[in-house]
Specification:
single chain, 230 residues, mainly alpha, two-stranded antiparallel sheet
């Protein structure tokens, strides 16, 4: 199945500057459903397994923008200093297992820590790991990484200027609430959703975000009523 949805291209590693094979996913994927925290379930395949590219020569790992966009010299120098004596040649494989996919994100997170990368990207990577564990039905591990993602998104809101990574600040607030919803922490979820629902400017400027927050709020109320009847 993977070969029907992926293809191999060569890209220049931004750290060692060598040509390395990486895996890209095809765009024509069938969506089966979307979770509250923006996780998309595709039919028979998950592109999240291949979101992180890994240099087969030096072992650097990051998403596509990290590879193709210009990296600040100070970041490249710091990462190269870390990697140049590690001898981390990675065996290239076209098909990733769940452990492979999780490992790729954890590698990318290590490199983000080295350069003190933005909390929003760390949050996104942790959220992706949670989704991978969700696909594998590893509930405890999913919850662990959801918690990390929520905390990091909260940090990013106080330190970064949005929009970031396709998210506005209001969308990020909603996402934190949705993550807590998936964790079963309805109290924290409503704290974040209320920031959206109580702001009429959001209703006008970002109606889709407002509607998502309102719908999720309604789901929580329904769940509470059902629990009280039992």
């Amino acid at each position: 199945m993977a070969s029907e949805n992926t293809f191999v291209v060569e890209k220049t590693c931004p750290i060692c500057m060598k040509e390395t094979r990486v895996i890209k996913t095809r765009s024509r994927l069938v969506v089966e459903k979307r979770d509250e925290d923006l996780c998309v379930h595709y039919k028979g395949f998950s592109p999240y397994y291949y979101r992180i590219w890994i240099c087969e020569h030096c072992g650097f790992a990051g998403d596509e923008p990290t590879f193709v966009n210009r990296m600040p010299n100070k970041h490249r120098e710091k990462l190269w200093e870390f990697l140049k004596h590690k001898d981390l040649e990675i065996e290239f494989t076209e098909t990733r297992t769940l452990p492979d996919a999780v490992a790729s994100f954890l590698m990318a997170l290590t490199y983000l820590d080295i350069i003190n990368g933005p909390a929003s990207k760390k949050a996104s990577y942790n959220l992706n790991v949670a989704w991978l564990y969700r696909f594998g039905a590893y509930k405890d591990r999913e919850q662990e990484y959801l918690a990390k993602a929520a905390e990091l998104f909260d940090v990013s809101l106080s330190k970064e200027r949005y929009p970031v990574g396709g998210l506005t600040d209001n969308a990020a607030v909603y996402l934190i609430g949705a993550i807590y919803y998936r964790m079963g922490d309805f109290e924290k979820c409503t704290q974040y959703l209320s920031r959206i629902i109580s702001d009429q400017n959001v209703r006008t400027s970002e109606p889709k975000v407002f509607d998502k927050a309102r719908d999720l709020w309604g789901d929580i109320r329904s769940n509470k009523k059902s629990a009280q009847k039992k």
